[in-house]
Design a protein that fits this description.
178 residues, mainly alpha, Ferritin, binds hydroxy diiron-OXO moiety
Length: 178
């Protein structure tokens, strides 16, 4: 069974992951309003992934005999000046999340809650990938600058990011369910 301190910290992380999902959903809307559908697709996939992260923590708290306490969610930001600003924000946000995961793993070790380590280690690896992905896209956007064909090429590439067809973040899935 997990102690109260780690239980509270994991509940905070459920909130952080849900807020990540909410942030990326806002970015998906922003990109769709610019007709950058590939970037919107990438953000929808990211919003979906963050929801699965929240549920991993949610399930883990319950499995460890803890108590899930959901918190109020905040929309971290809702407007951007450019695709580059949005992806820079995504990169910064992932760096923030990596710090949260590091703090969780340090706390779990301090409390000798070794049963939480496999999940937290999974997140350590996941964050390496998430930071690298958002950072790489931000760098590519900085490289193309105001060059429209370059922007559209990146957009096309990001449109290929797959995510489950049945995800509610996938517009097709919502239509199919109607
Ligand atoms: Fe972006 O990895 Fe979860 O938050």
């Amino acid at each position: 069974m997990i102690g109260k301190k780690l239980n509270d910290a994991l509940n905070d992380q459920i909130k952080n992951e849900l807020e990540s999902s909410y942030l990326y959903l806002a970015m998906a809307g922003y990109f769709e309003s610019l007709s950058l559908d590939g970037m919107a697709n990438w953000m929808r996939a990211q919003a979906h992934e963050e929801m699965t992260h929240a549920m991993k923590f949610f399930n883990h708290v319950l499995e460890r005999g803890g108590k899930v306490e959901l918190k109020d969610l905040k929309l971290l930001k809702s407007g951007w000046e450019s695709p580059l600003e949005a992806f820079r924000d995504a990169h910064k946000h992932e760096q923030f999340i990596s710090g949260c995961i590091d703090a969780l793993i340090a706390l779990a070790r301090k409390e000798q809650e070794f049963a939480s380590e496999p999940l937290l280690s999974w997140f350590v690896n996941e964050q390496v990938e998430e930071e690298a992905n958002a950072g790489r896209i931000a760098e590519q956007l900085a490289m193309v600058g105001a060059d429209k064909p370059g922007l559209l090429m990146i957009d096309r590439e990001l449109g290929a990011r797959p995510f489950p067809a049945a995800s509610p973040f996938n517009p097709q899935a919502v239509v199919a369910a109607e």
